[in-house]
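User: Second chain of the day. Same drill as before.
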Amino acid sequence: MCGRKACAIVALLSAIGAASLPAAEHPSGKAVGSTSLRPPPPLDTEAMNAMLRADVDKDGTLTREELEQYDLSLARRFKDVDSDRDGKLTFYEFEKLLGPPPGTMEAV
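Assistant: Same format as last time:
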């Protein structure tokens, strides 16, 4: 059994596909597993830490209620970034939420 924070991190990494292991070498010298997969994009550690704080039930996703408890202004944009309309934000959807609202220009 893992600690609550460790389980939350594993759930979050699993949800974004970053917890998979790279292809391994078989003792025979033949490669095992897929070597054609690209590594996941680098994670925004600030966004990950924010999501871990907001994810009350530690399931690796955020509901609107969890987001309302964390930041009401972000919760107002929940529907804009819940692209699959499942009522939960994945890490990638949460990263979009932390960016500028749709239709605004980001300062250069």
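The first strand starts at residue 24 and ends at 25.

User: Great, on to the next one.
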